[in-house]
Amino acid sequence: MSKTIGIFGGGQLGRMMAQAALPLNIQCTFYEANRSCPAAALGKVFSSADPELIPFTQSADVFSLEFENTPLADVELLMEHKTIYPPAEALAIAQNRLLEKNLFRVLDIPVAPFLPVDSVDNLRVAVDNLGLPVVLKTATGGYDGKGQFIIRHAEQIEEAWAQLGPAKSLIAESFVNFSREVSIIAVRGQDGDIKIWPLAENHHHEGILSHSIVPAPQSDDLQPVAEEYIARLLTHLDYVGVLTLELFVTADGLYANEMAPRVHNSGHWSIEGAVCSQFENHIRAVAGLPLGSTDLIQPTVMVNVIGQHPDVAAVLALDGAHLHLYDKSEREGRKLGHITLMPKNPAMLTTLCQQLAEILPEPLALTKETQIHI
Amino acid sequence: MSKTIGIFGGGQLGRMMAQAALPLNIQCTFYEANRSCPAAALGKVFSSADPELIPFTQSADVFSLEFENTPLADVELLMEHKTIYPPAEALAIAQNRLLEKNLFRVLDIPVAPFLPVDSVDNLRVAVDNLGLPVVLKTATGGYDGKGQFIIRHAEQIEEAWAQLGPAKSLIAESFVNFSREVSIIAVRGQDGDIKIWPLAENHHHEGILSHSIVPAPQSDDLQPVAEEYIARLLTHLDYVGVLTLELFVTADGLYANEMAPRVHNSGHWSIEGAVCSQFENHIRAVAGLPLGSTDLIQPTVMVNVIGQHPDVAAVLALDGAHLHLYDKSEREGRKLGHITLMPKNPAMLTTLCQQLAEILPEPLALTKETQIHI
After folding, report:
1. String of b and e for A228-251 (b: at least 16 CB within 10 Å)?
2. ipTM for this model
3. Subunit composition (chains A, B) (predicted)?
């Protein structure tokens, strides 16, 4: 009766996937360097440090991932005998910003002008062509704002190259003048069925997601456009599972920033806030089951717990607060958990966010003055 | 950081408690005869068959239970060094129908007239006093309709005594002429805070719960009365955790049937249907944390999966259906899981229930003609 899904990675995303899988009688196994990872409470961990790749590939019927930098070589070895969703092609593209931006362009999804860079000389050419400011990024690796340099003055070109040049493959992008960042998350089933959650508006602090507001305020016109873009990606890639697309809201409309071939921090609100969460729908898709409704139940704000644990009792005393801790030890900048605020009266979201700003040791972009206009 | 709660029992109730505890960084351990019980996926199981009571009592900071027939001797041994919620007194009363009905009477909670019975002679006296029909029950043990006999004719007295007499302590009750059965579930925190979920209307088939409708139809007048009754019980018992009170709806108002000192099958809807579920609030209470809101999110019907597993894909294809399987093998009359129906439009509940009646191998009291009037 019960089925097993093997997951590359065993962090909080794997933990929440396994939590969603359990009521469907689906077990998970994990491939992860740290045996006492957040997902360890819910399934067997095969060490990627040892490595135990072969026994991991034998531990499940079908596979997925929670970590977009899963080595392609590991995935290809797995695919000799087993199936993995999402497809390896989607993973390869998401691991390389040049391939990713090219795909966006091919599918008529607007992106900021960009040029590949592999020397300080063609970085100068790129800056000339794109005009300052230019964002220089490594084509592979990098997350949460790491692995990028914003060149505001021509004199910074040498410094930017010195810092990122060793990565060899770089991408120079025009700086997008955006008013806010939103993300669209969708899921595609093995039968091609697509379901899409409402847009989230994401607020960052020093490159780390602080909180997401769902639905993104004033997004009625943006939602159908974002849906069209992500549906193109899903169909083109013959994708199965959850895909996330980060977008900038500009005066000229939506610009794609990047995609993540997995469940996403800006979708954690869906555990309580949607009929079926991103985690359950990802599991359903990978297991070949029908997808659940992505309808919003109530407006919600998801707030990350970063670096230090809060006073749990103070958090739970807030009306409609749901706490999700990941069983991780404290460390600066580390995601330790998240809180979903879903008060019966959405007008209370502003008050609750302000109260949370007082409770959280590291409230990031949340302050006593935060206003939520849904 | 993380805390451990030890739970007597390791069935589906323990499983769902542990699922609710995990996001709060609270682990669970279990004391259960079968090491591969439904809760085993979520925490260490100490065998009550071996028995491993001492190591179990050392495995956690605070204790609770999912099984109202937990032996009092085990609980008393535990209490020499540790704390258990709910209190042992509540457990002792819930294990004995005579103590239970006496408590209801003391607290002015209406009950059917009853008399203790310990011989065939005073069974005859009881029948004379109460008038036929009389329901004869064992004072201890018995669940899901087992351990009782309905005496409709005086000639059945000998047969009833022959069947139940060996239990020694019996209770004879007047037959309550009720239109329906409802249950009220409430939680009390260590600070005395009480929160109460909406009434559920429960439908049985041969003594097994088939489905619950929440909120119970036409219960606006009943809700405050039921709340008053359960609050009296919680306060009198200095109770901590979730308590369930089953009630009959009669022409004369509500009559108490029995109480369960634990989370209850008729409260499973609260995982999706309430802001905070009975499982999470029980864990919060036992851990000394503030209680969450028991507000209803949307009307819902919870349907039990009995005896045989359904076609999972067919269930998940229903709009707003949430499936919870308990990882149990099939056996006649066994609770294998439950399905919570929570369509965006509550008017769809009737259609969904009728569709489920076609999908479930054992739909019990659910039929193609079922009508849900919320």
Report:
1. ebbbbbbeebebbbbbbbbbbbee
2. 0.94
3. Homodimer.
